[in-house]
Design a protein that fits this description.
six-stranded mixed sheet; alpha/beta; 27 strands; 33% strand; Jelly Rolls; 3 domains; 4 helices; 14% helix; seven-stranded mixed sheet
């Protein structure tokens, strides 16, 4: 039986030499040498350099998009998006069809931006599409970030870097855009109404350093909340679903800015709640929880502040004139369990530093 080498020689030499036996012999020798050397002609593993490969276009990779198995192909960015199921290029100016979901967009953006660009601002800031992906920090009170008109895929994060209870941050959409969505925090569910031209605000009294919110544009209606932390509220909207925090005191208590929004109850006789210096938006409610005719309750402003307003009863109207450094008092003899007063700070020291916005029972101004 002929060997593989003899079969190879006969296949490639047979018929070329005719009756010339010396040529036949020479061809057989050459083909025999080639056969013996063939294994060494195959490149070893890891021996072919990139320079030996065919040239490729800029911004392309090797892969395969054609159906079935086959040779590698040079893939474009569009080919790659098709393979991974990302139908839209991630660009601020994109007008392509929407991505399958905001979650996919968020994941892709996180992959694209392993490190975010951070800018700390000290004044109002008008954003542009070129700011896409940035994280903005603000530690200066009462500053506003104005968003551009919504565009699909634009994303921004805003962080309150100011002191607790001292730094209001506002994010303001375009007049034709809305901020949509919700997020949950301890004690509050923040739910936006999705109304055009309504800001979202990290409120002053409840603000904490590190409160933040991330928004992404949908290119149609406005901006979706992807993630948030802290107490944010939509402009002119109360916190929807918020549980009122009630604190029962049995002794004198000095109220602080961080207590804003709380309801204080006191059933111990002759105790005083001392207010902080007025700050716009601070709000407190005080309730007499003691027995009827037993429990006088005092609300005391700082020396430079007054409490103004009216306490309307069935038979009379009591006017708090707002004299500075004068308490308002739920008088002992006429006190009833459940008598209450709600006041709000104006931020302006003087007679109207605090304003009464609701009350029940008989309250008097300190003489």
């Amino acid at each position: 039986m002929a060997t593989a080498k003899e079969i190879f020689i006969e296949k490639y030499a047979g018929g070329f030499y005719g009756d010339n036996l010396s040529l036949k012999k020479r061809l057989e020798e050459i083909l025999g040498v080639m056969y013996d050397a063939a294994p060494s002609l195959i490149p070893a593993d890891d021996s072919v350099t990139l320079a030996k490969m065919a040239h490729m276009a800029t911004a392309s990779v090797l892969g395969r998009i054609a159906g079935g198995e086959g040779a590698p192909e040079v893939l474009t960015a569009a080919n790659i998006r098709t393979i991974i199921g990302l139908v839209t290029a991630i660009t601020g100016a994109s007008t392509d069809a929407q991505l399958p979901s905001a979650k996919l967009l968020y994941d892709q953006l996180l992959l694209k931006q392993q490190r975010s660009t951070v800018e700390i601002v000290v004044d109002n800031r008008v954003l542009t599409a070129a700011d896409h992906g940035m994280v903005f920090g603000c530690g200066t009170d009462n500053k506003t970030f104005t968003l551009p008109a919504t565009a699909q895929g634009l994303m921004y994060t805003f962080v309150n870097t100011g002191a607790n209870g001292n730094n209001k941050v506002t994010v303001s959409p375009n007049a034709a855009d809305k901020i949509m969505g919700s997020f949950c925090n301890k004690g509050a569910n923040i739910i936006t109404t999705g109304t055009n031209d309504k800001d979202i605000v990290n409120t002053l009294a409840t603000s904490k350093r590190g409160d933040h919110i991330t928004l992404v544009g949908d290119g149609v209606d406005g901006w979706y909340i992807l993630e948030g932390n802290g107490i944010w509220t939509e402009e002119s909207q109360l916190y929807v679903g918020r549980l009122d925090e009630v604190s029962i005191k049995i002794d004198n208590y000095t109220v602080v800015a961080a207590d804003s929004g709380k309801i204080f109850g006191c059933g111990t006789k002759a105790k005083t709640f001392s207010l902080p210096a007025t700050v716009a938006g601070l709000k407190y409610t005080f309730v007499n929880t003691g027995a009827a005719g037993f429990n006088p309750l005092n609300i005391s402003p700082v020396a430079a502040d007054g409490i103004s307003g009216t306490f309307t009863l069935a038979a009379s109207v009591v006017v708090g004139a707002g004299v500075v450094n004068k308490d308002i008092i739920n008088t002992e003899a006429t006190s009833q369990c459940g008598d209450s007063v709600t006041i709000i700070g104006t931020g302006v020291a003087g007679v109207s530093a605090w304003v009464v916005i609701a009350s029940t029972g008989i309250w008097a101004a300190e003489l």
